[in-house]
Amino acid sequence: MGMSTRPSPARMRPFATYDLPGIYRVCAEVDARGGAMRQQLRAPDLAGHIFAGPYLMADPGLSWVIADDQGVEGYVVATADAMQFERWREELWFPPIREQYPLSAIARESPDDSRYLEILHAPPREATAFTSAYLAELHIKLDPRVARQGWGTQLINELVAALRQRRVGGVHLSVSIENASAVAFYSRVGFVPSKQTDRTLTMTKRLA
């Protein structure tokens, strides 16, 4: 009679290169607007190319994952200097990706794909709106399977500790105004509303 193997519980750890496909998967599948429904993207890598890949490439030391036997189930990525990061991303990261995903493809893509294409070709310049007090920026996503278990708070706390070690004065993030649960979560971990557009709310947190 064979012995059954219990699945290993999820744990948080620093990002490793082999986590990249899992991070891209979570980034593509989990809808930033909230809810448990999976995004169905025709070009699933597009989301990761915008909201995960460049952060992992520019500063992997500010990235952590939640992983179990099934792979990556959540992550946080960040930059300590969003203004410098945006310049690097615009000059070196986005050009080849824009060639691969031209703006003309919007007409034949799904609404979700088209939304990411618009961001790719006309990304918001958020960093210019902030002083050095909030120049760090983060993106965080959790698969619904591991949500509401305290992992989001642990990821934020780990990142905040690392940013404080670098003497970063503050951090900002953007969240869909449709995602009420995410807005409530960020409020609980110390973020406050800063500005709002028709689609997103920008929230900030002082670190010093």
Radius of gyration: 17 Å
The overall pLDDT, averaged over residues, is: 90
Cα separation of the termini? 59 Å
What CATH first level would be assigned?
Answer: Alpha Beta
Return the domain count: 1
Number of strands: 7
Helix/sheet category:
alpha+beta
Q: Specify the CATH architecture.
A: 3-Layer(aba) Sandwich
User: What percent of the residues sit in helical stretches (DSSP H or I)?
Assistant: 25-40%
Would you summarize the structure shown here?
With 208 residues, the protein is α+β, with helices and mostly antiparallel strands. 37% of the residues lie in helices and 21% in strands. The chain has one domain (12-173): Gcn5-related N-acetyltransferase (GNAT) (Aminopeptidase).
Give an account of the 3D structure.
With 208 residues, the chain is α+β, with helices and mostly antiparallel strands. The protein has one domain: Gcn5-related N-acetyltransferase (GNAT) (Aminopeptidase). 37% of the residues lie in helices and 21% in strands. It has seven helices and seven strands, in the order E-H-H-H-E-E-H-H-E-H-E-H-E-E. Strands 1-2-3-4-5-7-6 form a seven-stranded mixed sheet. The longest helix is centred in the middle third of the chain and has 19 residues, at 82-100. The chain is globular, with a radius of gyration of 17 Å. It starts with 10 loop residues before the first strand and ends with a strand. The mean pLDDT is 90.
